[in-house]
Amino acid sequence: MRIETLRADRFGRFHDFRPEPFAGGMTVIFGQNEAGKSTLLAFVRAILFGFPAPRSKENRYHPWCGGEVQGSLDVRAGDGSLYRI
Questions:
Q1: Residue 24 clears pLDDT 90, i.e. is over it
Q2: CB contact set of 12 (below 8 Å; sequence gap of 6+)
Q3: pLDDT grade, residue 58 (50/70/90)?
Q4: Pair 44, 74: CB distance under 8 Å
Q5: What is the pLDDT of residue 56?
Q6: Which residues fall within 8 angstroms of residue 84, CB to CB, at 6 or more apart?
Q7: Residue 65: HSE in the Cβ half-sphere, 13 Å Cα cutoff
Q8: Is 25 a residue whose pLDDT tops 90?
Q9: 35: nearest Cα among 17, 57, 58, 59
Q10: pTM for the whole thing?
């Protein structure tokens, strides 16, 4: 499985964030401190493995712009099928 596109519509500091589609091979995300790298990692983990429970002490990354968390990942399976999560 390979992540092709990422859409963080409402997740922490990100609002309507849609980076360019990821190319084949390895993708490296880099940036200055407080640029949002850890927030993007938390977004991918939440989409793939589930969001923290409401009573959990983990950061739930409530959108700064208000509303509910929204976003998606487009992933390509080994057989070429494309799925939106």
A1: no
A2: 36, 39, 42, 43, 61, 62, 63, 64
A3: confident
A4: no
A5: 87
A6: 72, 73, 74, 75
A7: 11
A8: no
A9: 17
A10: 0.88
